Amino acid sequence: MTRLQQLQRREFLRRASAVSVAGVASPWALNLAAIGEAAAATQPGDYKALVCVFLYGGNDYGNTVVPYDSASYQAYATIRQSLATPREQLAATALTPSVPLPGGRQLALAPQLTKLKPIFDAGKLGVLLNVGTLVQPTTLAQYKAQSVPLPPKLFSHNDQQSVWQASNPEGATSGWGGRIGDQFLASNGNATFSCVNVSGNAVFMSGQQAVQYQMSTNGAVAINGISRPLFGSQACADALRGLITAPRTHWMEQELNRVLSRSIGAQSAVASALSSLPALKTSFDTANSLAMQLQMVARMIAARQALGAARQVFFVSLGGFDLHDFLLAQHPGLLSSMGDALSSFYNATVELGVANQVTAFTASDFGRTLSSNGDGSDHGWGSHHFVLGGAVQGGRFWGQLPVVAVNGPDDVGQGRLLPSTAVDQLGATLARWMGVSASELPRVMPQIGNYSLKDLGLFA
């Protein structure tokens, strides 16, 4: 092989995850990106899973975790005007954290998140306050003076989704979920299932070596042409299988057929593993798309030994949060879907006996403005997010509680929160819980060196 061919081959392999641009329209293409099995075997009981629940569109923090003490609620209601949740509706979800908030302040979950309150009260769910994309710790004065680097294209959906998921703007080729997966490829008996996406495609799940394995809520996505008779002919299906798996002399054809062969093997392994599982006793709402994604995650976790998995990262998502209009009409339903799905998922991990080994967290493009535009809220920056799981030291709030004000000390305008906690700090904390060493942490979160606080205290 010539030097040019070697370089071309390495570039082809490096860009294997580029098939992810095919998106939901071609889910089978993502399955082709499965990488080779690692040599190390998994150890029984040595398992951890991280689950990213991404809320596409920018979730409205103001009506998700709501000020409840009298003074803060009055400030919130005055700013939000017609968007404010009536205070009497918050009594059942008012939170009593194990570590009281300063100044006697109180917060409540949205009324639609009632199923999450028992998990909070049990100390298995907490709220991370005012987290968002940053390059380094940034004060309001520095932001106004533009004296420190800021995330590119603030308030832009595509770019902030990418910065949240990858610590880089749109066009990034790897995300921190995939980079966590990179660290554990050799820990999994089958590295194909290190990063599993049940939502379509997300840069969060692409690593430097790890490639996201895409599934549907029904299971592995088969290649239709070989999974059943092609044009009514089994002979045609067999011929196609031969064409796409046979050894080739050209290195590009050989690589394509190699990943196709492993994709076929992965589909067979998933189908076999899932079919042998007993049905979950925990109920999931079949009309709730997020719940069905999380049900599949739970089933994959249940099949972890059959699939040779010791460390896994999962991705699920719910869209529709870009509510410039109709916030009161649509946001409550979205929150209900999220809360019900997370509750069912946590209960399923308890049923499976893995609650202490599974951590889920929410994320979103950005928060939104606290001020109302009349019928909705506009693009913001920092937001509040949930972290839940048996290992979580929950029942409390982490981070700094922002002042409820427009143009206040935590606000860059219209109630857009200047994040006091960086996504990089959250990612580093989760990566360390998964088992990433301190020396390898910069490979997962390249900007973590800008922060003195690298562990947010989410776990004991």
Automatic annotation (TrEMBL):
Q: Where is the chain membrane-spanning? A: none
Q: Give the residue range of the signal peptide.
A: none
Q: What is this protein called?
A: DUF1501 domain-containing protein
PROSITE patterns (UniProt xref):
TAT
Q: Which InterPro entries match?
A: DUF1501 (IPR010869), TAT_signal (IPR006311)
